[in-house]
Every structure is written in C-alpha cells, then in structure tokens.
Amino acid sequence: MEVQQADDYFGYTEKGSSFDAEVRAGLTTFLTMAYILLVNPAMLTLAIGDGSDAGNAQAFSDILFATAIAAFVGCVVMGLWANLPFALAPGMGLNAYFTFTVVNFGMGIAWELALFAVFVEGLLFLLMSLPQVPVIGGWRSKMINSIPTDLKVATGAGIGMFLAIIGLREMGWIRDDGAVLVNLGDTESWGGMIGIACETTAAGCDFTDATIGAEISVGLLAHGAIISMVALIAITIMMARGIKGAMIYGIMFAAVWGWAVGAYDPYNDFLGGGAGWGAVEASAPAIGDIVSTPSMPEETLMAAFGDNGMGAVGDHMSDFLLVMIAFLFVDVFDTSGTLYSVGRQAGYVDEDDVLHNSDEAFASDAVATIVGAVCGTSTTTTYIESAAGV
User: Contact, 115 vs 312, CB < 8 A?
Assistant: First the structure.
C-alpha cells in the first residue's frame, strides 16, 4: 500500500497527522506495551506450566506465541476494520485473575477449562458488539453510551494508575508492605549500592550518621530503579520541550544503558528456566535473536476444546459460569473505559458523547479475545497505552 493509498484509506491527513507521525506513533505505542510479551507469559506460566524447568519453558514459549498472535490480530482488525488507533493485547489484571483466582490458589479449576471460559466470553462479547445479531446485538455500545461521562473518564484514569503502580514496583521504587500495602523500595540495599553505611532499624535504614563513600559503585549504575527513573525524567523533559519521538528515545536509551552495564534481565532468566527474579544480567541481543521464525504452541493451542476444557464443562458448570461471567464483566467495562478515554483524547468521541465506530471497535476486541483463547492466553483487551501514540 503506497503512502497516498494509506492516506485515502485511513484519512490521517484530514485528522491533522502525517505518514511519518503515524509510524512514530505506532512505534511509540508498541514500545510502551511490549512489556506484555514478557509479563503475560511469566504470569500464565504459573498456571499452565507443570513446575519443571522444561515444562515451564515450553509453557512460556507457547504463551508468548499466543500473546503475540492475539495482539497482532487485534491490532490489525482494529486498524483495518474499525479504523481506530487503539492497540490490543492480553490484559493485565485479567491474567492475574486467571492465574491466582481461577486456576492456582483460588477455585483450582483446570487451565484448559479457564481458557474455554475466555473463548465463550469472547464469543458472547462479539455477539453483543454486532448490531446485526438479534436480541443481544449492539448491547455493548448501548451499555457504554449509558454510562455517565465522569465514570467513563475515571475508568481510564484508574487503569492508568493501576499500570503506574505496576511500573513503579518493577522499577524498584515501591514494594509490597503488609502493614501499609505499599512502601518505598528497599532502602537498605540502596544504601549498600551507593556506598552509604547505615544502621538497620525496625523502620528500615537509619542514615542519621551515614557516611558517604568516595565513589559510587557500578552496582548503582546497573540498578533498574536508577536506569528507569533517569529514562522517565528524560522522557518528561523531552515531551515538555516538544521533541517528537520522546518516548522512543527514552525507552531505547534505557535499553542500551541496561545492555552496557549488565542490568537485571528477567527475560533471559525465564529462558534459562528461572522464575524471572534471578540475578541474570542483560546483554544486547544478537542479530539472529531479534527476528526469528515463531514455533506453534505445543501444549496450549486448541487446549480449550480438549477433555479438560470444553469436555469438562458439564462436571464444573457452576464454576465455569462464574468464571466466564467474571471475565465478560471485567472485559466489557475495561475495554469500554479504555476506548472512551483514549478516543476522547484522540478526538473520536462526538458532541453526543458517542465513540466513532464503537461497534467495530468492540467487535475487534472480541475477535482478538477469541483468537487468544484458542492459542492459549487469557482475555485480550484494548490498552490504555494507546494514549501514548495519539
């Protein structure tokens, strides 16, 4: 498709954009949500893996493929059919519910049955999104249009805050705390990294009589908290100065820095059969590792329709219905809030507070969920990170 043909189809010039800006926006959106290619397989491996190194590695590989193909199908359908700049991928929160509430520590049902629940939820979602379907067709658009504007805007803000908490935790700036739920990161380890002597107390690290070392250790420069915070500040400054591609530059800067100093790298830890929290150093990927031919899933592909999936519905009907309805409910309101919030920012919500091509957008989300369930991942949803590209 030539540039002019692309403009005729997508109409980005009419919307005040350009081909270069669209490419830059797409790359920015990809980089801001690419973390899901690691986080989603890591999360779902806890539910799908058999506990052995080989079994977990195979599960991780299968789910990585399912995550990528669900995101690919969702983004392509959303762009070509709905003509909206919204990116999709398996959702955070829903994958945790799948792993810890449905499969592992909560209800304890088979992961294959949970995948079938996701498939049925996606199918119902699709039927609710198409106005041509009798009785329930178009329900989803009617639902979002009936929600008060303030609540729809707040939903998007809430999702953003949820992701911000996850980001700050992975950066090392905050940590779980049994007393106050969220606390600052491990100050004692920080003191050791920057050569500061401190006295450990019940409240943490007491720096009252601290002595600062003559030089900063290399460990500090390889600490993810430092790398990510410097990158975040750099992105903020560049955006304030109106520099195009600020997020791209900031993310790539952090990646190169991490490769140079050997920062912690959870991805290679997973490939080595670890839990993703080991002391594995980052290294620049080899040329042959950047692009490779994907392998089809061995365990998860079509597992939803096996004996432990669709075949087990009759024996676990009440649990199946509960899980399916929960997935459907969260998916509907998660996607609705995200579509409205990002669409409002991008100018796709009209004066009547109605989202442009909402039926097509919802159906695109449902198609991606169905494809993801067939391949082996939890519910696919529209990403609030799409706002980075609009």
Answer: no
